Fold:
Amino acid sequence: MQNPADHILKGVLATLGATFLFATQDAITKHLAQNMSVAQIVFIRFVFFALFAVVYATRRGGVRMALITHCGALQWARGLLIVAEIGIFALALRHLGVAETHVLFACFPLMVTALSVPLLGETVGWRRWSAVSVGFVGTVLILDPGAGVFKPEALIALLAALLFALYNLVTRKTGRMDRLETSLLYFGVVGLLASAVTAPFFWEPLETGEIGWLAVLTITGICGHLLLIKSLQWAPAVVLQPFNYFLLVWAIGVGYVVYGEVLSARDFFGVSVVVASGLFIAFRERRVFRRTP
Structure:
């Protein structure tokens, strides 16, 4: 019998692998977004992700069973939120660097904590509220509005972070009522239907090079989600939460290697404050989780 510690290690390694693939995916998205419409990129991503979700559901009891949901409206809202988030994030990548976008996006766990009170009725103690406040200061440092170099495009990345925070909150709620296969299937199907509404208005003929990069984009996305699913099967989410911040580390590295992006010392300090606040919140939530009967 395998040691539980081995399962946790496998979960951590799978999370690190998934975050690396997602950072790679964002670098590819930035390349494609320079010439392709965002709506077209999002639609093609969801075509393949919906196929992946159908295959996964088929192997886990069948599509008909996976379609049974106890919170249909929330699943649809969740799907619409993630389509909007992916599209706006891709738009941010068109105007900002990969590293710069992720540095701003890193504040979404703080938004999740702040919004969980009015939207989910959760209780947040003074320690976590303090961490949210400190993280907000870190975000302001990154934006640097007083230096006269503030980029309005940075607000696009912050809007993507807000939408992803809302998506996470809805996912928390659906996760209590529906199976993973159900949430995955609605994610893919609703995303496909929603993106199909706008894609025809922005469709352009694909070049050979773009087709190749789109293939890599879909493969990295599917493999990343498979690794995330496996990681949650091996280790609890509260244990893996801090390791999700490696997405930021990979994004900074990929941005430097592929696009020559270099963050300023102020950006590094600001993101360190944001990440430290997020890690503290994750630590506090883990303690609350352990105390919950």
